[in-house]
Amino acid sequence: MITRTFSYKRIGSHEIRADVYGPDGRSRAPVVLWLHGGGLIFGSRRDLGTLWVDHVQRYLALGFVVVAADYRLAPETKLDAIVEDVQDAYRWVRDVGPELFGIDAERIALVGHSAGGYLALSAGWMLRPRPAALMSFYGYADVTRPWYTQPSRHYLQEPAVPREAAFAAVGRAPISEPPAENTRSLFYLYCRQQGLWPTEVTGHDPGREAEWFDRFCPIRNVDRDYPPTLLLHGDCDTDVPCDESVRMAEALALAKVPHDLVVISEGQHAFDVLQRDDPTVVAAMDRAAVFLSRALA
After folding, report:
1. Which residue of 73, 111, 219, 231 could cross-link 245, Cys pair, CB 3.0 to 4.6 Å?
2. What are the distances in angstroms from CA 20 to CA 14, 34, 42, 57?
């Protein structure tokens, strides 16, 4: 499993990096552009080689090159700039990928988990040319619904995070790779307990600036040219409601976009890590492999 690291973007002195898995050659291989989760607040491209290493092994076995890209994290960087990073990562893969790591620029699928799934779904209408396919594991369709704008009953069961501790866990300078001693999840927990995630991540209030969020809610931007999409979600997800993928599937069906929805019975958030040996999860991963193989053929 060959891994190389590149800087695909620089903001001042800050470099944003991507890891490339796969053979170094002119194979014209299809490519998976992988986006990590973490509520846009924590997580990194390195998660693919640790928590989700079985995913990268599956993609490589199918003959794909895999690019795991970082993006700047919130709240230091707001959502509109994070989306720009995804756009630039995609442009970089298309522009340099064929020569640098042997990919076919016309056969790119975006795959993401949780917040990364949300970014993948957003890319379905924001990227030009559009990707060949999208795959969202427990991603978001609409970031202005009560599950994100009101205190989470699930996260309120955790000890309350004081505002001071939450903001001490993050900083002011742009960051795309969390430090080794990473406490940034405290800020995410605080946002969920207070129902402040959309406001802190975007810098806008969904209650008073509803229209601003239109372009950042995938479900509001599905059209007939939206890429073929696979949605995977557990029906016992306490972080991102399964209804987010169900409603997204309904919007795709209304627009007549080729898609599939796989609901994992008793599936948790991150079921593909926490329940990876469950036969239902294994079957879902097999369906994901078939979907990508057909979409990128």
Report:
1. 231
2. 20, 10, 21, 13
Amino acid at 100: L
Q: Are 282 and 221 in contact (CB under 8 A)?
A: no
Length of the chain in terms of residues written: 297
Radius of gyration of the chain (CA): 18
> Which pTM does this prediction carry?
0.97
Residue at 235 is within a domain: yes
- The answer on pLDDT for 15 being more than 80 is yes
Q: What's the CATH number where 126 sits?
A: 3.40.50.1820
For residue 205, the surrounding DSSP H or E stretch is: none
Q: Rounded to the nearest 10 degrees, how much is the dihedral formed by the CA atoms of 163, 73, 276, 147?
A: 50
Top-confidence residue, 41 or 1: 41
Could you give the CA distance from residue 38 to residue 229 in angstroms, rounded to a whole number? Answer: 21
Cβ-based neighbours of 132, under 8 Å, separated by 6 or more: 30, 106, 107, 108, 109, 227, 228, 295, 296
| Residues above pLDDT 90, as percent of the chain | 96
Residues 162-174 have pLDDT tens digits of 999 999 999 999 9
| Alpha carbon distance 67, 285 (integer Å) | 19
For residues 264-289, average pLDDT: 98
**pLDDT for res 289:** 97
